[in-house]
Design goal:
By secondary structure, the protein is an alpha+beta fold. The chain has helices at 2-30, 34-70, 88-116, 139-144, 153-159, 161-169, 213-254, 261-292, 304-322, 340-357, 411-421; strands at 121-128, 131-137, 175-182, 188-200, 203-212, 300-303, 325-328, 335-338, 365-373, 376-383, 425-431, 434-442. Helix 5 (153-159) packs across helix 6 (161-169). It starts with a helix and ends with a strand.
C-alpha cells in the first residue's frame, strides 16, 4: 500500500515545503529582511518549478504506458525505469497484458499451424459492417483451388464464383450440401460443403469447410483395405507357419534310413495337424468368397411374422439347450420385399450372436419386436447379454473380426452387406446389460 501511495506522499511533501517557504518569506518581509525574503521567494519558485516537472514526468509515464497498452505495443521494459517502484500497479497491469498478448499469439500460431496441416479446405469469414472479410484461409484451400490468400470476399468471388454464389444464395446461413467446382481448369470435382455461423463479443464469423468426396472415399477404401489385409495376413500366417515348420520336420525325417515307431507317430500327428490347418485355411477362403461374391437378392413378397417363425423354429433346439427364453412381440402382419433365404441368414446370425452373448448370464432373454415408421419396418432384436465393449464397438462389422475362439468373424459383416443390398441398414445400440440390433427394411 505504501509503495502505491509513495508518489502522492512525495507530492504532498513538496507542497508542504512550498507552503512553508511562502510563509517564511512573508514572515521575513514583515521583519524587514528583504534580501533574505527575496531569497526564500526564489527558493519557493524553484520548488514550484520542481513540482511542475515532477507532476509532468508522472503523467508522462502514465501516458506512455497507457498509450503502449492501447496500441498493443509491449516492446518496452519498464522494469528498468528508475521510478518503477512508484508505478508498480500500473507496470504490473502492463506486464500482465504483455504476457496475455504473448499467450494469445502463441495460441494463434498453433491454431493456424493445425488448420494449415488439415487436408480440408477451410475459410473463416469475419463480418465488418455489411461486408465480409477473409479472416483465415488455410494452405490446403489455397493450394487445392489455386487461389491466393486474399483478404476480401469479392476478391475470392472473382476466383471461385461457383462456391461464393451458393453461399450468397443461402445468405451466409448454416448449410450442408454438395457442389461441383472446377479445379485447376480441369474436370469438375464434387465436394461436400459444410458451413456454420457464430458470434463472439459482438463479432460475427462464418466458417466454411470443403471436403473432396473423392478423397473421403479413397481414405475410407484405404482404411478398409488395410484392415482387411491385416486380418488376411494374420490368418494366412497362423496356418502357413505351422504347416511350413511341420513340412520341414517331415522332410528331415524321411531322409533317415530307418523310422522308429515314435517317428511314425510324429509323422501321423504332423500330417493330421497340417490337414486341420489346411481345412481351416480353406474355410477362411470360403468365408472371404461369400463376402466378396454375395449374390444379388432375389426379392419376393414375404410375410414378416412367417419369416420370424421359420427362423425361431430353426434356432429352437439351441435355445432350449442353452435355456434361453425368447419373446416374440411381432403380432401384426406386414409384407416385405426381400430374398427370403438371405433374410433368414441375417436373422439367424443375429439370434446366434445373442445366444453367445447370453452364455455366462443367469437371466437369458431375447426379445424380438418391430415398428413401422414412414413405410419402413424396423425389426429389433434385444438380448440381456454382456453387451459390446466400447473399445470394439467400431470393429464389430469389420470382416473376420470376432471375439469368439471358434468364430469366423463374417456373421455381422455378411448380415450388414445383405441388408444394405436390400436398400436398408443394420445398426446396433449398446446399453447397460443389453444389446439391441435394429434391421431397417422397406415395407
Amino acid at each position: 500500500m505504501f509503495k502505491n501511495q509513495k508518489i502522492y506522499n512525495l507530492l504532498f511533501f513538496r507542497l508542504v515545503l512550498v507552503l512553508i517557504s511562502i510563509g517564511l518569506s512573508m514572515f521575513l518581509f514583515s521583519k524587514g529582511l528583504l534580501y533574505t525574503g527575496f531569497f526564500v521567494v526564489f527558493v519557493s519558485f524553484l520548488l514550484l518549478t520542481e513540482i511542475y516537472f515532477f507532476i509532468k514526468n508522472a503523467f508522462l509515464m502514465y501516458d506512455r504506458t497507457i498509450a503502449s497498452i492501447l496500441q498493443n505495443d509491449f516492446s518496452a521494459d519498464f522494469s528498468k525505469n528508475k521510478s518503477f517502484e512508484n508505478y508498480s500497479s500500473l507496470f504490473q497491469l502492463y506486464e500482465k497484458l504483455k504476457n496475455k498478448q504473448h499467450e494469445d499469439l502463441s495460441k494463434d500460431i498453433i491454431y493456424r499451424s493445425i488448420l494449415n496441416n488439415i487436408e480440408t479446405g477451410i475459410i473463416i469469414l469475419q463480418k465488418e459492417n455489411s461486408d465480409w472479410n477473409i479472416f483465415l484461409m488455410n494452405d490446403y484451400f489455397s493450394k487445392h483451388f489455386t487461389v491466393p490468400k486474399v483478404s476480401k470476399w469479392h476478391y475470392l468471388k472473382n476466383q471461385l464464383p461457383s462456391l461464393c454464389n451458393i453461399i450468397e444464395e443461402q445468405h451466409f446461413q448454416e448449410m450442408k450440401t454438395s457442389l461441383q467446382i472446377r479445379v485447376n481448369k480441369q474436370d469438375t470435382q464434387t465436394f461436400i460443403i459444410q458451413t456454420s455461423a457464430t458470434r463472439t463479443f459482438n463479432q460475427e464469423y462464418y466458417i466454411i469447410l470443403l471436403d473432396s468426396i473423392q478423397k473421403v472415399v479413397e481414405k475410407k477404401e484405404k482404411e478398409a483395405w488395410i484392415n482387411l489385409m491385416k486380418v488376411i495376413s494374420h490368418e494366412l500366417l497362423n496356418s502357413l507357419t505351422p504347416i511350413r515348420s511341420l513340412s520341414q520336420n517331415l522332410s528331415e525325417m524321411i531322409r533317415q534310413e530307418t523310422l522308429s515307431s515314435e517317428d511314425l507317430e510324429d509323422i501321423k500327428q504332423s500330417v493330421a495337424t497340417m490337414h486341420n490347418r489346411s481345412n481351416h485355411l480353406q474355410e477362411f477362403v470360403e468365408s472371404y468368397r461369400k463376402l466378396a461374391m454375395l449374390p444379388s437378392p432375389k426379392k419376393e413378397k414375404t410375410e414378416l411374422s412367417e419369416l420370424l417363425e421359420s427362423c425361431l423354429q430353426i434356432m429352437q433346439p439351441l435355445f432350449k439347450k442353452e435355456q434361453i427364453t425368447v419373446e416374440n412381440l411381432v403380432d401384426f402382419n406386414r409384407w416385405v420385399l426381400v430374398d427370403k433365404n438371405q433374410m433368414e441368414q441375417v436373422i439367424i446370425n443375429l439370434l446366434t450372436n445373442s445366444m453367445y452373448a447370453l452364455a455366462e448370464k443367469e437371466v437369458k432373454e431375447i426379445t424380438i419386436s418391430a415398428e413401422v415408421k414412414e413405410k419402413r419396418i424396423y425389426l429389433i432384436i434385444t438380448d440381456t447379454g454382456t453387451g459390446i465393449d466400447s473399445e470394439i464397438e467400431d470393429k464389430i462389422f469389420l470382416p473376420f473380426f470376432t471375439t469368439r475362439k471358434d468364430g469366423a468373424g463374417i456373421g455381422l459383416t455378411l448380415s450388414k452387406n445383405i441388408i444394405e443390398a436390400h436398400g436398408g441398414y443394420l445398426a446396433f445400440e449398446n446399453g447397460e446389460n443389453q444389446t439391441k440390433f435394429t434391421v431397417c427394411l422397406l415395407e
